[in-house]
Amino acid sequence: MEYDVAIIGGGVAGLGAAIYSGRFNLKVALFAETIGGTIILTDVVENYPGFKRITGYDLAEELKKHMNDYKVDLFEERVSDVKKAGKEFEIKSSERTIKAKTIIFATGTQFKKLNVPGEDEYANKGVHYCALCDGAFYKQKIMTVVGGSDSAAKEALLLTSWADKVYIIYRGDKIHPEPINMDRVEKNPKIEIINHTNVKEIKGDGKKVTHMILDKEYKSSKEFKVDAIFVAIGHNVLSELPAKIGVKLNDKKEVVIDRNARTNVPGVFACGDLVDTVFKQAITGVAEGVLASYSAYTYITDEVIMPTGNNK
Questions:
Q1: pLDDT tens string 142-193
Q2: Is there a domain that residue 159 lies in?
Q3: How far apart are CA 153 and CA 168, in angstroms?
Q4: In 150-166, which positions are buried (b, 16+ CB within 10 angstroms) versus exposed (e)?
Q5: Alpha-carbon Rg of the chain, whole angstroms?
Q6: In the predicted model, is pLDDT for residue 311 greater than 70?
Q7: Structural domain harbouring 95
Q8: Are residues 76 and 152 in the same domain?
Q9: Would you say 246 and 89 are in contact if contact means Cβ atoms under 8 Å apart?
Q10: Of 47, 160, 179, 247, which has fewest CB within 10 angstroms of its CB?
Q11: Per-residue pLDDT reduced to its tens digit, 235-259
Q12: Are 162 and 142 in contact, with CB atoms under 8 Å apart?
């Protein structure tokens, strides 16, 4: 089957691209293993215009509902391969192969690992990457968050809903969340920050995590007793598919785009956490998805839509 545009990735950027591709009356295929992407693992979103406070899951659901107002063929499948097929592109998933005149990549990122001994052994046995998903299993326990970003701070704040104590372990001088979350961390009596420290090894009894080994002493010991470890040290970019068809990447493996979400390959566009924009937020990803759909439309039709001021 042939489509005007194939969108690969169903996070907020991909959903934004699908909504506007539908509005442009393009024939759209959206491939997504998980609708909503990583935003559905976020407990509270307070920086998406129009919603003072909403869960990540509910935000994704609102975008999906909006998308369903348009004709979008949704395939909840993993794309395994993409390649050029003349002037078009061939997209192969676990269930089907389609052709499309254009592609919008919105594949996003995946959680980074610590890559220390014991991490894989105790995955889901005390080592986790999502507080919202797994924090409730450790009520009245001692937990740690490894990382110093805004995401790490928010993970720690959420974990205080269940934990007796939450430690933030960070290798740098000072954690660097958004000011509002820094203030919340500093005011929360359950949270303690340990700076200039790395996790060297994760230990357990074979069934669950019991402690970890630090690279410097804390209270006269490098052994640190803990019931759960939540890793929040960033993400790896999922750019293998665009690289297969010659899309340019930067040294971080991010897809390089211009201000209209175009890549160096004609007919190929990208948006969201996948791309090389500095400030990555849900709202900026959605905006990039919209630009990508507009660029795909102009590529296919060679028609530029002029703003009217009332296009609602």
A1: 999 999 999 999 999 999 999 999 999 999 999 999 999 999 999 999 999 9
A2: yes
A3: 8
A4: bbbbbbbbbbbebbebb
A5: 22
A6: no
A7: 2-111+235-301
A8: no
A9: no
A10: 179
A11: 999 999 999 999 999 999 999 999 9
A12: no
pLDDT, residue 308, reads: 57
User: CA-CA distances (angstroms) from residue 302 to 55, 129, 228?
Assistant: 39, 44, 55
Say which residue the tokens 């003349």 belong to: 86
Angle, helix 282-301 to helix 12-23, in steps of 10 degrees: 40
State yes or no: pLDDT of 6 exceeds 90.
yes
Q: How confident is the model at residue 44 (pLDDT cuts 50, 70, 90)?
A: confident
Question: Are residue 98 and residue 154 in the same domain, yes or no?
Answer: no
In this structure, the answer to whether residues 179 and 214 fall within a common structural domain is yes
CATH number assigned to the domain comprising residue 278: 3.50.50.60
Structure tokens at 68: 């369903």
C-alpha 279: how far from chain center? 13
Q: Count CA atoms within 13 Å of residue 222 on its CB side.
A: 11
- With b meaning 16 or more CB within 10 Å and e meaning fewer, what string describes 49-60? eeeeebbbbebb
pLDDT value of residue 303:
73
Which tens digits make up the pLDDT trace of 200-218? 999 999 999 999 999 999 9
Same domain, yes or no: 242 and 278: yes
Extract long-range pairs of 189-195: CB within 8 Å, 24+ residues apart.
Answer: 190/160, 190/163, 190/164, 190/165, 190/166, 191/156, 191/157, 191/160, 191/166, 191/167, 192/165, 192/166, 192/167, 192/168, 193/167, 193/168, 194/167, 194/168, 194/169, 194/170, 194/218, 195/170, 195/171
If DSSP codes are grouped into helix, strand and coil, which group holds residue 166? Answer: strand
DSSP for residue 254: P
What are the backbone dihedrals phi and psi of residue 215, each rounded to the nearest 5 degrees, phi first?
-85, 0
- Final residue before a domain boundary, out of 231, 247, 266: 231
Q: Does 7 share its domain with 37?
A: yes
299: amino acid identity, one letter: Y
